Amino acid sequence: MAKSRRDNNENKGTPKAKITRENISQALILFKYLKPYRAKFVLALIFIGLSAFTTSLFPLFLGKMIDAAVPGTALQGGPGTMSGNFGLDLKTIHWSLNTTLLLIFLQLAAQTVFSYMRVYLLTEVGEKSLANMRRDVYTRLLSMPMSFFAEKRVGDLSNRISSDLSQIQDAVSFTLAEFLRGVFTLIMGLIFIFWIKTKLALVMLAVVPVIAVLGVIFGARIRKMAARAQDQLAESGTIVQETFQGIAIVKAFTNEYFEIARYVKSIHAVVQTAITNARYRGAFISFMIFSVFGGIAFVMWYGATLVQGGQLTIGSLTMFVIFSVLVGSTFAGFADMFSQLQKTLGATQSIREILRTGGEAIEPVQPPVTPEYLLKGNVRFDHISFSYPGRKDVEVLKDVSLSVANGEQVAIVGPSGAGKSTIASLLLRFYEPDSGQLLFDERPAKDFPLSVLRSQMALVPQDVILFGGTIKENIAYGKPGAADEEIIAAAKKANAHDFISAFPEKYDTIVGEHGMKLSGGQRQRIAIARAILRDPAILILDEATSSLDSESEQLVQEALDNLMKGRTSFVIAHRLSTIRNADKIVVIDKGVVGEMGTHTELMNNNGLYRKLNELQFEFGESVAVKEEE
User: Comparing 491 with 330, which gets the higher pLDDT?
Assistant: First the structure.
């Protein structure tokens, strides 16, 4: 499981970081999540050491079993043997076959327990600490201002939570355990091979490290080529995705053969890289077979000469070979651990960057609205100017002043890009003005806690976002924990109850991803029901009917009229026919308030509002004529 998770992380391209003191110290900061579980973590480390120690006893007992089966193999001491009390005289101890078998099974039983405990404890510690880390990272991401999400891709943020955090979890529960186990095994293996025969150990160490180093170099090259093949394969997949997403354009411009040629060129590059990689892998496998077996043969040859000279027993030689294999495989395993460590450092850098970034002062739980912060609905824009953080050279709003009284319906109109939606973003405090001041009930917006302020506002956007649950859950999003009676009452006011009741599962109907199982008008009315349930003091309608047909628009407009009664409403309108009854119409052009007044007053002026109305009227007449024809 751990290996497959690591492979997934590799395919997702978890960035690597250089192993430096600074990067390691930054990574260790994240180990604060282990503090609540430090007792179990320390116990797991003890079991890792015990597991490595019991593993090292297996070759010893196996060698003693062979010596017990071959009579007359006792050593007489001599140069290179560590006689005396070192090793508790294990070299001169001889056990019967039955005793040795019993010791092996006791060793295996102990190793089973130790291995189980280390895996269980490290997994528990890793998963629990990862869950806490995921919670903090997700919480921090949700608290980020809108400017952060404007600069980041959703896929990258999702990858931070999934791939990067999983990489860190692997480091805690798998890589760290394997590294420590490898270190213990390496130390125990080296102690035992020097204890068995110093001369033979020196010969082995002259061969094994060379093979291990060359294996690391070859392995790094192969991994690099494999990563390149993965990138090229991903590129060919992108071509397929783009082609099928734009299949209508491909066919309309008869570019099928162009796309085929583009795809073939991409997969030929994948083939060439794979073939080149195969050459390296073939050479690597051949080299390793020759080197490993040749090295073993050389060590065995030298060990056999020592057996012939009476300086070594057959059992001791067997021990030595097994310990040599353990030492060599541990050397080779450190290369992969080094690569995993680099990825972990890269992942921790990304996570640390998120955790260090300051977010909005939101509350983790919906706060109660105290009388001190209860909105009446009066809003005032006082000489506000604003530019988006990503394009400071473009001033979207320029010295905008606007006063709205409690219960007024204010329509914001103007050409595309004039700054209408920016006003909605400032009302919700998604952004802060560069200059000027936003006031609610004649109090600066910054005087209100952000969560408390937003909890008294509701947004009905043009492109409604529904979550992939039931209709009831989506309506209740406006007031979590609302009773069924409240949800049904809100749906009735939004003209949504009839079509919801027509579904077999009624309010428990699954809406699908982004509400794809519902029509545009149905989605819009659910969004309105969500806003009605919230019962906001200030309502923001961002072109809520612009993309609907006439029948749906009429139903939605009735629902909006119900929603706007008795509350301050900001209506960002595209269809000017829907806002003629507004108390105040504000015309925005190039970030400046050009006109302000009622529909009648503005139509009497020869200004932008009148021109926009005439254009829409002429366009509507031409469409009607074409429909009649």
Answer: 491
State the CATH architecture for 1-197+343-360: Up-down Bundle (1.20)
- Cβ atoms 208, 328 nearer than 8 A: yes
Q: Which two tokens stand for residue 534?
A: 């919230």
For residue 386, what is the enclosing H or E element? strand 379-386
CA 386 to CA 443: how far, in whole Å?
20
Q: Pairing state of beta strands 592-597 and 584-589?
A: antiparallel
Distance of alpha carbon 297 from alpha carbon 283, whole angstroms: 21
End-to-end Cα separation, the chain, in angstroms: 66
41 close to 125: Cβ distance less than 8 angstroms: yes
Nearest one of 382, 380, 426 to 404, comparing CA atoms: 380
How many C-beta atoms lie closer than 10 Å to residue 11's C-beta?
Answer: 13
147 vs 9: CA distance, rounded Å: 28
Q: What number is the average pLDDT over the span 34-61?
A: 84
Q: Give the tokens for residue 99.
A: 């005793």
What CATH number should be reported for the domain whose range is 462-535? 3.40.50.300
Contact by Cβ (8 Å): 110, 104: no
* Residue 186 vs residues 183, 191, 204, 468: alpha-carbon distances, Å: 5, 9, 14, 52
Q: How far apart are CA 247 and CA 237, in angstroms?
A: 15
CA separation for the pair 572, 422 (Å, rounded): 10
CA dist., res. 4 & res. 37, Å (int) = 26
Q: Residue-wise over 79-116: b if at least 16 C-beta within 10 A, else e? A: ebbeeeeebeeebeeeeeeeebeebbeebeeebeebbe
What are the tens digits of pLDDT across the range 334-375?
A: 666 666 666 666 666 667 767 766 666 666 566 677 777 788
Q: Where are the domains of the chain?
A: 1-197+343-360, 198-310, 368-456+541-547+566-629, 462-535
Q: How many helices (H) and strands (E) does the chain have?
A: 21, 10
pTM of the predicted structure, to 2 decimals: 0.63
Reading the block at residue 118, the tokens are 């280390």
What letters, b where the CB count within 10 A reaches 16 and e where it falls short, cover 409-436?
A: bbbbbbeeebbbbbbbbbbbbbbebeeb
- For 452-573, strand residue ranges (E) read 457-460, 538-542, 568-572
